[in-house]
User: What shape does this take?
Amino acid sequence: MLEVSAQDPWFQVSEVVQLIRRGVATTRPELADATHLGRNIISHRIRAGQEVGLVEPDGSGRSRGGRAAEVWRFRHDAGQVLVCVVEKEFLRTLLTDLGGNILSESQVVWSLGSGVDSTLEQVAQEAEKLLKEAGIQKPWGACIAVPTTVDVAEGRMASPVVPIDSPYRWPLDVDIRGWFAQRLGVPVWLASVSKLMPLGALMTPGAPKELVYIRMGSNIMGGLAANGRVCHGAQWMAGSLGHVTVSDEQTRICSCGRYGCLDTVAGGGAMVADAKDAVAQGRSPYLAKATVKHELAVDDISEGAKVGDTVCVEIVVRAATMLGRALSAMIAWGNPARIIIGGSAIAHNELFLTVLRQTIQVSTLASFYENLEIVQGDPEQRELVTGAVGLVVEYLISPPYLAAWGPGGSPADCPEMQS
Ligand SMILES: [Zn+2]
Assistant: This one.
């Protein structure tokens, strides 16, 4: 997109809308103070923002003596955002308003190993079905979230860590963003799940600007934010904590093809494999009983640890200890104010969190630990949706994008934004 100069009216509309959206300045006098624009210009820019549906009056507010100034608010209901989350074993599709409030959603079982072509087609079909059911012809934009590294600038996959013969490895030359933009006819952004989590966490009211989000799943994904911005890294791989070597043991090979990675100890896949070994060796009565009912999962290990099954306790303590040590090095480098542990059931297990906190406490300087919050993520992983919607909306109301779609009145009908 073309850069827009600060004198361009749409640049100023963007500035005004962003201030209103963040609640930083919501009246004409406040907006004039914040932007250094004259009140007449502010009135014009607010009107333009109102005409494209982004802001509306919200009654009268604070008075500076004399008549109370009219308050403006951002319109979350002005449009919809489509969020398509591709996970290793399922697809989740959501339709939200511009504030990230979920209007409808669906989830289907799907394997990431099905390959890129059939996965893109399935995601598009799920999205079209959800839109049709909701009676929405075109949302304002879409975010496709994938559980791998993404070259955000190009809208493609980047530097996959999985070996070349893995079914989970997709070719890098597929223009995923362009494919969806053409298919759905709306602006599309491709993002890594691990980067959307910290982005969503940053948007939580009162969130510190320096934070880390750890998503416990079959693999461990990390994402970090510094000075309020998510770090991507030189190869878009920042936060790949699961592939830090934490053990000299060569018993289990990692998805990256190496031994000793954090994923081979604390990843959900490794924890379940340890649990199955224990069942085969007759070491865990709790897990043996669970195996009769269903395929073992991390939830069983978490529940087993709660009722004191020795094997489950061992698995949980080992995973928390290894994660804590790996995180301690990161804490020394990045000095975060908050670490959010989200994802699978293990992230909400008290024993896991206690051991994690203790390990970090003994592995870092006291001043790091004393000023560090270690908290649980939202059980529904709302951070992912908040981050995805926030990403789309912030792009849509940024000066270059607003200057492109503002004159036509809707981002969905702006071909310039679909390339
Ligand atoms: Zn690895």
